[in-house]
Specification:
The protein is an alpha/beta fold. It contains 19 helices and 16 strands. The site of uridine-5'-diphosphate-glucuronic acid has 21 residues, from helix 10.
Length: 475
């Protein structure tokens, strides 16, 4: 089939390449000519594992082309996927739909054949209905254009595999024709047994928003438990593991730490709150305000703990920041918890050096102040404190003994609960993490490890100290 994919960012570029990979003829469209030039040359304009391979394979095979011209898109196909951004509005919690509207306003008058416009962007419930009116009023006489919604559930870092082997496909359609067309588009997935939920557009739109709200709630739930752990001396990592054994709960999305960020979960729960208010059911989802607040509190708690470990002052202290992206295996720094923490400690006077395996270019655009290092050792040199903020695999493989030789003091906050504290403590590090006792009992309860290591920057004690924002020690 011939398809266009309009908007070739994190979602659209992957969707276009994967649709070509399953055999369709695909034309990707974007207003960003730099992005289009890179994609047309078979180069991924952002870091996403597996994307370069399918881009090259399919552009070379001639099944995947790119353009900035909507006219070319209208001429090329009669199925158009819309994958443009729906960021948070600057003046409210609501989603900014201007890019989606620009696409339908641009495309509708250009259509010369009956067409299906399939939204994949995440939108407030009710958007398909509004856009249908918009399209119908702008198409040429005799042309019939249906708007359907087919939300996307891919995760960055796993985008290619999530697109080729999704957990489910959800389509919101208003005609059997649209349903048949989408079944044809996804025929290889359906043949492989992927669940296909065909429903009305409002339900499809809501499935997406509900899924992201549920995931965000799960993360904030475990982070709320982490706060209780800090107050009571319990261990959130063991708690999550034990909860996760219950199949009804599951271990996924129960990793406590710095919380969620990115271009989706934060803005999606806020847009949902705004839309629910419009629908006069704001109270029903008002818990999402708390989800958002709990999430943001983890950033503040991390900064507070860092300041405390540095004796109450950031000024004149050097801090190494490991990780800038909102999650590993992505170069995306949109609403990155790591960068938010980095920005705050810079604002409070710390001298920071930031390392990230893939996100430095993007991070520099958002937070230009600090030094960025391509080498972890360099980032950690003479550091009074190391902050592990994004759990890239390579940080887990770091040698704590080697690292302890370059820092000024072996203090670490593992804000993602991803390192093995016992290993680091054995190498002389004072390791702290949200939701974990100062002395993580290993193995079994009761075992405490107390070490005091004299260092150039002063003694590093693992004992709780007065004012410790996490330990429940006397303030
Ligand atoms: N990033 C992700 O993992 C996922 C994103 N989504 C949703 O997909 C949508 C897109 O998200 P991302 O790809 O992350 O955003 P993005 O910002 O990476 O990509 C959006 C693209 O649309 C282009 N664009 C804007 N206006 C345009 C226009 N009028 N015509 C053609 N292109 C235009 C931009 O230049 C940009 O390349 C959002 O609604 C998001 O919530 C859904 C699932 C996963
Ligand atoms: O709508 C979207 O764009 C996408 O949003 C999320 O995907 P993504 O933002 O790529 O990343 P996630 O893996 O969900 O992680 C989101 C954030 O939550 C954090 N997180 C995740 C899991 C966890 O247990 N704890 C936790 O703090 C991550 O560090 C990250 O900052 C959803 O998982 C996708 O299904 C959805 O399609």
């Amino acid at each position: 089939m011939r398809l266009t994919v309009i908007g070739t960012g994190y979602l659209g570029a992957v969707h276009a390449a994967c649709m070509a990979d399953i055999g369709h003829d695909v034309l990707g469209v974007d207003t960003d000519s730099g992005k289009i030039a890179a994609l047309a040359a078979g180069r991924a304009p952002f870091f996403e594992p597996g994307l370069p391979e399918i881009l090259i394979r399919n552009t070379r095979a001639g099944r995947l082309r790119f353009t900035t011209s909507l006219q070319e898109a209208a001429d090329f196909a009669d199925v158009h996927f819309v994958c443009v951004g729906t960021p948070q509005r600057a003046d409210s919690l609501a989603a900014d739909l201007r890019h989606v509207e620009a696409v339908v306003d641009g495309l509708a008058p250009l259509l010369t054949r009956d067409s299906l416009i399939v939204g994949k962007s995440t939108v407030p419930v009710g958007t398909t209905r509004t856009l249908t009116r918009r399209v119908t009023s702008q198409v040429r006489p005799g042309v019939d254009a249906e708007v359907a919604w087919n939300p996307e559930f891919l995760r960055e870092g796993f985008a290619v595999q999530d697109t080729l082997r999704p957990d489910r496909l959800v389509v919101g359609v208003t005609s059997p024709h649209a349903d048949r067309t989408l079944r044809d588009v996804y025929e290889p997935m359906l043949r492989a047994g992927v669940a296909y939920v065909s429903t009305d557009p409002a339900t499809a739109e809501l499935v997406k928003v509900a899924a992201n709200s549920f995931l965000a709630t799960k993360i904030s739930f475990i982070n709320a438990m982490a706060e209780v752990c800090d107050a009571s001396g319990a261990d959130v990592v063991t708690l999550a593991e034990a909860l996760g054994h219950d199949a009804r709960i599951g271990r996924a999305f129960l990793s406590a730490g710095l919380g969620f960020g990115g271009g989706c979960l934060p803005k999606d729960i806020r847009a949902f709150l705004a839309r629910a208010e419009e629908l006069q059911v704001g109270e029903a989802v008002s818990f999402l305000h708390q989800v958002d607040q709990i999430n943001h509190r983890q950033r503040r708690r991390t900064v507070d703990l860092a300041r405390h470990l540095l004796g109450g002052e950031f000024a004149g202290r050097r801090v190494a920041v490991l990780g800038a992206t909102f999650k590993p295996d992505s170069d995306d720094v949109r609403d990155s918890p790591a960068l938010a923490v980095a920005a705050e400690i810079v604002a409070q006077g710390a001298d920071i050096r930031v390392h990230d395996p893939e996100g430095i270019d993007n991070a520099q655009l958002v937070l230009p102040g600090p030094s960025y290092c391509t080498d972890v050792m360099e980032a950690c040199r003479d550091a009074d404190l190391v902050l592990h903020l994004t759990e890239w695999r390579q940080y887990r493989a770091l040698d704590p003994v080697k690292l302890s030789q370059v820092v000024r003091a072996p203090r670490m906050i593992d804000a993602r609960n991803a390192l093995d504290p016992a290993l680091w403590r054995e190498a002389g590090w004072h390791v702290r993490a949200l939701g974990r006792p100062v002395h993580v009992p290993t193995p079994g309860p009761g075992g405490t490890l107390r070490v005091t290591i004299p260092q150039a920057g002063g003694p590093v004690s693992t004992a709780p100290t007065p004012g410790d924002p996490l330990s429940g020690a006397p303030k």
